[in-house]
Design a protein that fits this description.
Chain lengths: 247, 352
């Protein structure tokens, strides 16, 4: 790997080839260099950090809205088999639409902006969040519900104190998948509107600039891993009864 | 609240109760008339589909009768709000009944919370109950989750939970069915001890006739189609089963089961052994007559000495044991008292 670097390092000029490279050194000027840490440090505040924050915002809003819709739909579906089949069908069809095609499809309706992106991202979270929530709600055994009813809980008390509580691990598992998927999918949104980590990634592809591609792509992966880790910690905190061995 | 000032049991009466489920030819419960005295344990026993669980669920209105009525302390269940009625009845089912996402304390607090008790009172009551069912140390046990308990411990929590709001009546649906033999026997003893302390009326569903004999003051045997085949004290049931169905259910060894209901101490006659030269076998007064018979047969002797801590109580002869197994049933509370004493020897020795 070091061989081509040494050869090309002696190539033309020292100055920036493309302005976006910013103040540069030999590494950046060399367009074939794999990764230049210097570029990352000097462009963190102007390129990467704003993109990362936008990306977090896009993903949080998408998963948040998706969760609210999926929870409401799952509660409805739990009490109504017809609604359950209908919603699953729509969410599944939505899920099969290629994401780029979907974003393009909505541009004439909702324009080139955040709204289009969020509609797309929310749509892709629905299937997994809805299915997991519904399955979680159904995980309470009939015996347990019979015990709850027999002890004097009203149907809604039994639903909220037993079904919903027991669904929490499945819901969190759904949020984890939805979050990681959304963080990855949100990079594509930059085709619609220059937002999030997709923007530096697209830029880097256009410029054939490896450093930026690796930095932005790596940040996306890191963000997904950190988000997933935080959700695991949150799950442990709110459902301590999970993962208990018998003594 | 100490066990002494808890709410005692209430009478339960089934008045010509029939339950037909839609789409089924035969009724699940057929013209049932049954009276359970306050403070008694009534075991409902019979084959699956015999209507025993349905009968139990009629009491807390998880099932509504097609005809007839059920009276709790003289009041028709039909006049009571089902949700409030259930909050006033302890309910124990097989181990799935504990909520896995709640700690032991939270499980026990379910009904008190539904009733809106203050937190401090709930906490105090929880610790009291854990003490009562012998889950120690109570403070540490309260914080555990059901998955961290053994089967027997879970069953005790189920019992404590049913007792939480101090109901006069408890419904227990095969509560010990999932336990291994040894644990089961221990939890049964525990329950009888607790029952003596709290004196609730208990309806106890089981498919195990031996469990019914051990636990019940009265046993209701259900036949096919929800027909009550016999309703009697355990000793009566064993002495004179009504018909071949009940006789088959109690088993061909019913004479031995009868002997198991009585203690050697209650049957011993105060006298010198007939054969003074021979070394006779001995048993303790709280031993059951069944065990005494077994010891006697193994020794080859015809007389057994019952010896307590203060010396010999008396002796029992082989002929007397045979007579005890064949005799018509004794009626009244003495039989029930002996039955309880035989079931829990270590506590039975104390005055009731």
């Amino acid at each position: 790997m070091s061989a081509p670097l040494t050869v090309l390092a002696g190539g033309p000029g020292g100055g920036p080839v493309i302005p976006q490279f910013g103040s540069s050194n030999g590494c950046v000027a060399n367009t074939s260099a794999l990764f230049c840490p210097d570029w990352v440090t000097s462009n963190w505040g102007s390129v990467l950090e704003p993109a990362l924050l936008q990306h977090i915002e896009l993903s949080l809003i998408a998963v948040g809205i998706g969760l609210v819709i999926a929870l409401a739909a799952a509660v409805l579906a739990f009490h109504n088999g017809w609604f359950s089949r209908g919603f699953t069908g729509i969410a599944a069809i939505w899920y099969t639409i290629p994401s780029l095609a979907f974003f393009e499809l909505f541009v004439p309706v909702t324009g080139l902006g955040t709204l289009t992106i969020e509609i797309g991202l929310v749509g892709y979270t629905l299937l997994v969040l809805f299915r997991n929530t519904l399955e979680g709600l159904r995980s309470a055994s009939p015996d347990m519900i019979s015990a709850a009813t027999g002890m004097g809980m009203t149907p809604w008390q039994a639903f909220f104190r037993v079904n919903v509580q027991l669904a929490v691990p499945a819901i969190v598992a759904g949020i984890r998948v939805a979050t990681v998927t959304t963080i990855s999918l949100a990079t594509i949104a930059a085709y619609i509107s220059p937002l999030g980590l997709g923007k530096p990634i697209l830029q880097a592809i256009q410029d054939s600039f490896n450093t930026e591609l690796i930095a932005a792509g790596g940040l996306t992966i890191l963000l997904a891993l950190v988000a997933d880790g935080l959700l695991v910690l949150a799950e442990r905190a709110i459902t301590p009864w999970q993962r208990l061995g018998r003594r | 609240m100490s066990p002494a000032d808890t709410a005692r049991g209430v009478d339960i009466e089934f008045v010509h109760v029939t339950k037909r489920f839609p789409g089924q030819q035969r009724p699940a419960v057929s013209d049932l008339c049954l009276r359970i005295e306050a403070g008694q344990i009534c075991c409902l026993v019979g084959p699956s589909g015999g209507g025993k669980t349905t009968t139990m669920k009629l009491v807390n209105r998880l099932v509504e009768p097609t005809e007839g009525d059920i009276l709790i302390g003289g009041r028709s269940v039909r006049t009571l709000n089902p949700v409030e009625l259930r909050r006033g009845i302890g309910y124990v089912i097989q181990e799935t009944g504990l909520f896995p996402h709640m700690t032991v304390a939270e499980n026990i607090a379910v009904v008190p919370r539904l009733l809106g008790w203050p937190k401090a009172q709930i906490r105090q009551r929880t610790l009291e109950l854990l003490d009562l069912v012998n889950l120690a140390p109570a403070a540490a046990m309260a914080k555990r989750y059901p998955a961290q308990l053994s089967g027997g411990q879970r069953q005790r929590v189920g019992l404590a939970r049913a007792l939480a709001a101090d109901p006069p009546l408890m419904l227990m649906d095969e509560p010990f069915g999932a336990l291994d033999h040894i644990t089961r026997s221990r939890v049964q003893d525990e329950f009888l001890r607790v029952h003596r302390a709290v004196g609730k009326t208990v309806i106890f569903v089981t498919h195990d006739i031996d469990e019914a004999i051990k636990m019940g003051d009265r046993i209701a045997v259900f036949g096919e189609g929800g027909v009550l085949a016999q309703y009697a004290a355990p000793d009566d049931l064993l002495a004179s089963p009504a018909g071949s169905f009940v006789a088959d259910l109690v088993g061909a060894d019913r004479s031995l089961k009868r002997l198991a209901l009585r203690t050697a101490g209650s049957a011993a006659k105060k006298r010198e052994p007939a054969d003074a030269r021979r070394r006779l076998p001995e048993v303790a007064p709280e031993t059951s007559l069944r065990v005494a018979l077994s010891v006697l047969l193994a020794s080859g002797a015809t007389e057994i000495v019952v010896r307590g801590g203060d010396g010999p109580v008396g002796t029992i002869t082989l002929d007397e044991l045979r007579a005890a197994a064949e005799a018509p049933a004794e009626d009244g509370p003495s039989a029930a008292a002996e039955h309880a004493a035989a079931a829990v020897p270590e506590v039975g020795a104390e005055p009731r």
